[in-house]
Backbone:
């Protein structure tokens, strides 16, 4: 950890919760360095990382004073309160609630069911079974989300300003493609995702642009 | 819905996400009425409720103006911003992050894996298999949470003031007992839970004190 950077982010290129935090840091223009925790190789269970987050999960955000924050949504709220410029939440209380509703629908209802530990427990070594489980839960969650976005979206998830809901949506859609969800059912999600992916913050933080992305995926689809 | 109450809460006596919202409303002294959605009988899939929340989930909080909020944590944040008295979040940004870290660990990592839909998909009609799955995920999540609380707790989850973390902890421990988690492993969680359960807001909102609680559980353990 160098002294010049505010934070060190412990993450993994394809962890969608890590991507949410990269997006928030990039959006706010905060200097950070990254440290890769290779989940596929079990780095999260090694002593070096357990000293940072005994819950064995990424992301973990470490401050210059060596204080540790975990849980991506808690980190997003912390960044928003600490760095109010370029807000990730609207001013109106009602619209803030709409943003957080989308954030929580993704983070609590859709995402947890395809964490690696759950997939292994559910499908064992059977990759197709694991994929089918993930696909079914994402599809079910996206059905509710699509209907919600039909009501509240503008250019982005809630109206015409970028919010933390957008920082949760794009990584979730990335996972949906990975698990071969039929995205033709979700035109609003697809439209917003495609618009967001053209923005520099989304390109720079894309999993396939990260240093720990394997060469065969590097730059793919970005 | 009568005009005298601010909100109508659509919930279910043993839904832990509904209990979080009951706690927040009670804590803030907000007038609300309740409408029971019997999840075990499939009320959440009926047209009457689908018109309120097409995602088929409780809680849903409906305002006097018939606007609907879903996602318990988004609702808690909305209530906190709308009714700042008796705060559910500390003032210090760092402590607010600690509270939200606990909230998200419970709402995103521990709770989703024992939602009814997941249990049925996982264990089918085999109640013991369903229970074992829920028990394993709660135990694993509580291991990380216990260590976190060892560091940040005082009388309550974060220091000596009640926060929204406490409103998430108690319903989660209720579920842990339901799925026969061995709570002797978690002395800090147990201590905080027992302290909180003596408070009037926790007694009044307890699942076994709700009108839709079946007679055989009514008043049990409260």
Residues:
């Amino acid at each position: 950890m160098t002294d010049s950077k505010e934070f060190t982010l412990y993450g993994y290129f394809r962890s969608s919760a890590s991507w949410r935090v990269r997006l928030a840091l990039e959006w706010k223009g905060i200097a950070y360095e990254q440290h890769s925790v290779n989940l596929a190789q079990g780095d999260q269970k090694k002593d070096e990382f357990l000293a940072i987050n005994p819950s064995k999960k990424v992301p973990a955000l470490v401050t210059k004073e060596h204080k540790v924050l975990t849980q991506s949504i808690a980190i997003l709220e912390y960044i928003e309160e600490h760095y109010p410029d370029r807000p990730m939440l609207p001013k109106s209380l009602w619209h803030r609630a709409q943003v957080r509703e989308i954030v929580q629908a993704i983070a609590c209802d859709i995402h947890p069911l395809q964490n690696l530990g759950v997939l292994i427990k559910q499908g064992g070594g059977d990759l197709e079974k694991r994929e089918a489980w993930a696909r079914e839960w994402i599809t079910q969650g996206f059905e509710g989300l699509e209907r919600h976005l039909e009501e509240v979206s503008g250019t982005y998830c809630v109206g015409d300003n970028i919010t933390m809901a957008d920082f949760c949506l794009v990584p979730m859609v990335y996972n949906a493609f990975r698990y071969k969800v039929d995205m033709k059912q979700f035109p609003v999600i697809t439209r917003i995702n495609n618009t967001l992916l053209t923005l520099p913050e989304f390109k720079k933080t894309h999993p396939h642009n990260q240093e720990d992305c394997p060469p065969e995926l590097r730059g793919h689809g970005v």
